[in-house]
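Folds abound. Consider this:
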Amino acid sequence: MFIPFIWVFFIYRLLHYHVTASHIVSFCPLNYISYDNLCYGPIESGQAKFSSAMFECYQNGGGNLTELDTLHKMVYATQNLNIYREYWIGLRDVFNRNSSEGFVWIQNNRTAVHFTNWGTLEPSDGDNDCVYIKHGSASWFWYTRQCNGSAYAFCQRGDEYHTD
């Protein structure tokens, strides 16, 4: 029996919805992972500068660059990423201190960083103020580069859609 693709897609999405009494539907877009009431996923359409990646996340569901502020979140949220690509995250040295103390999560009122997972010899000196993640031998590590460099956007967004 042949089932048209649109019905297969509809049934798939229907099975992934969770409806609560307050008429809130929780779901994440395809290729995103749900964790702690947020959806995490990459925008794989092409590499971009840091500021353009921020805008791409906003355009795709009102999101932001991901804040990997705990080890558990970093391990869980990065499961669907391509290990051969580099991804911007929402961490930046906004004060040009060139030390790990100068980096803040830019989307959340410039929150200080309490968890780090820097790669070897990072954070580096100079104008390398923006942070991207790159897969190492067994994990994702944080690296710095100039903000006009390029990487893919790794976004986070809310997972609620109000139906009333």
In short: Residues 29 and 39 are 8 Å apart (CA to CA).
